[in-house]
User: What shape does this take?
Amino acid sequence: MSDFDWNLLRSFVAVAEAGSLSAAARKIGTSQPTIGRHVSELERDLGVTLFRRGLGGYELTDTGATLLTHALNVREGVDRFSLQAAGAEEGLSGTVRISASEVMATLVLPQMLARFSVEEPGIEIELVGTNALDNLLRRDADIAIRMVTPSQEELVARKIADIPLAMCASESYLARHGTPADMFDLMNHVMIGQDREDVMIKGFNALGAKVDRHAFRFRTDSQVIMWHAVLAGMGIGLAQLPLIDREPSLRSFLPELPLPVLPMWLTMHKDVRTSPRIRRTADFLYAALSDFARSAEAT
Amino acid sequence: MSDFDWNLLRSFVAVAEAGSLSAAARKIGTSQPTIGRHVSELERDLGVTLFRRGLGGYELTDTGATLLTHALNVREGVDRFSLQAAGAEEGLSGTVRISASEVMATLVLPQMLARFSVEEPGIEIELVGTNALDNLLRRDADIAIRMVTPSQEELVARKIADIPLAMCASESYLARHGTPADMFDLMNHVMIGQDREDVMIKGFNALGAKVDRHAFRFRTDSQVIMWHAVLAGMGIGLAQLPLIDREPSLRSFLPELPLPVLPMWLTMHKDVRTSPRIRRTADFLYAALSDFARSAEAT
DNA sequence: GTTTTACTATTCATAATTGAATAGGGCATG
DNA sequence: CATGCCCTATTCAATTATGAATAGTAAAAC
Assistant: This one.
């Protein structure tokens, strides 16, 4: 009979995926002793050895691996359940979890959401800023704002706009160093670029400028830090045009450069679309972000 | 995220199926307050009303019904998991749960299993006697002995034998009333038959004897009680021939009557076949029951 | 070779969950 | 109309599960 503690399954999956009790505990939001006890209890209940207690972690045995596939099915079922439940929620109050890129989550969304929380005091917002793609099926978030075309099935996606990028710097920097005349002139400036990522380098090379990472005298992988460095007058950076336009102390230049555009998408799972709370939030964000994108065109 | 208590789902399913907190608690082996709290907590967590608290029970709401289908999927996943786990158990010790018809569970299996428990002291036996067909997928039992051809998919079934039926009575009864000469002579005897079931009546009618339930002067729906009534010399009954032959005080007669035979099957789920414990028990039962069936042919 | 790091297992006080008991409400039966 | 039955909600003591702290181990980093 299926009358054992179903939570043990969750712990089992977590340990199997994380590879150690400690890591699993961190991921699941509980403590290492608890997870350890859960696994032991499950093994005792089933009369099966699931893990090889190894050096520096737990490793699945063969039978453990077999059982894991079934346990994963269970988790997927639970995920579907909670997804469906979220979609069935009645009323406008509750929590909405939004995931967005670092830049959007840090520089754009907070002020929008501040306005929103006045309009909808019953809705609580959780905002997570990450450039990692999240799994909406597993409800990492209810709504995701992403700068890439969504690929997952079962998603409802609305394209908000193509956000243009532009080179920019603060007035104070330009006053000191002058405004670059063309792309090659950029190399004579303090360029702010990426550290371990290399999309910017590849982009510049594609445009014909032969550069390596040392062309950038200030390097960071955080686009938010990059932005603040530009704001502080450190040098020249690349940023979303609507953001630049919003900032009186900044100037964009070289508009003729054929820089790529960022497609901005709002996505949510189709099963939560029916929730008035989530739908309301999504509609608000769509409108607000459309305005944000249009503000660049106007200037 | 799927980080709510998975056990709440089990309670939800139980209540939805049982129709009331109390019934669900009984079925699941816990208490009514606990189940009630689980349901409330789930509703609070999800922000959804699952049940209409009605008179004399809990009734699913529409959203509750929708969510139930997903919850049932989860339970099926859990069942598959525990099934697979049972099949993966190592070693010969543990519990084996056997389900059989009332008659077999009462009159035949106990002495076989007494012998078995001497051979395999490490194996604990749970024996449930019921004529209801059980769900091996949900692990109501590990092994089922049934007198009907199995229909469920995913089952491993072995036919043991066709058990012949025969009319019988005790020597003491026959000494008092004489042995019936033919089928129609039966009506002049004290016949032991069924109460609310009517398969015996239909059977006799199919043979050409026009009878209704009042043709039976002693009626019971329990085949075990019927057997004991025959043993006690109350009258004439219908029973499995191997059972009759085993009992020195009983005589069978009218062997020319074209009575149906009972096909006896041993079934188990294919996923538990690999468990040495269960396999050992099944093999023993198959051998012992084959002997039992053959004992009738020998005489 | 020493230090640091990441991990598991155990202990123990605390917090959370549980179930027996109880009160109360409808509904059927006598 | 009273009695019994089956149900739910609530209370409270006791059991159970939890996590902070700790000791110990093995590998990796310095």
